[in-house]
Amino acid sequence: MSKIKKLNNKGMTAVEVLVCFVLVVIISVSMYTTVSSYQNKQQIEGFKEKIFTYKNLLTKEINDDLIKDGLVSAKILNFNRNNVTGDADASIEMVMRNGQKKCLIVKSNKAYDYFWDPYDADMVSKLPPNEDKNDEFLISYGVCGEETEYPIPDLGESYNANLGGPCGANGCVIKDLRINNVDMTIENSLLNIYIGFYHPDLGTRYGIDIVCPVNF
Known about the structure:
Helices cover 28% and strands 33% of the residues. By secondary structure, it is of the alpha+beta class. The longest helix has 55 residues, at 14-68.
């Protein structure tokens, strides 16, 4: 009589199932972290490219006029900066050798990026005027009166959790890319224009920086 070999039908124990589950979770988390990190890096590189392209485009437009046509004189028409909020409205008129006038206009109106409760009377009383506003940034350049608008790149936005204020239920809009510093000076026959940008992932490393001698 031949011997019949019995098969092992015990299957996996609970411990083995648990170990397999833990290993799958570890591998999945590791893969997700790697993919997420790669996507974030790609996104930041995309942000850099957009800011860099915008900065170079506008800088080239202005510098081409200053170098090609020559700057005879420059006059700051308006420069109002709120040192508390960082808001700035600035404009400058530049007269070229061909008699053409070019104007650069910068508008930087920032939303407040902290949380405040409109139902807290003491907190509201300490706020500066016009606290309910969205971020608004715009640079215009060209022949005076016919300037071309150059809106800064839209790289996302968030809200400042302003509870049901005039900005709406979500609060006021805070752009991820903001104009954080504007400076225009004419000193010692030298024109200086600086428009600095800020992004939470990139800091303040990017900006439009133009220096040109006047009537050189």
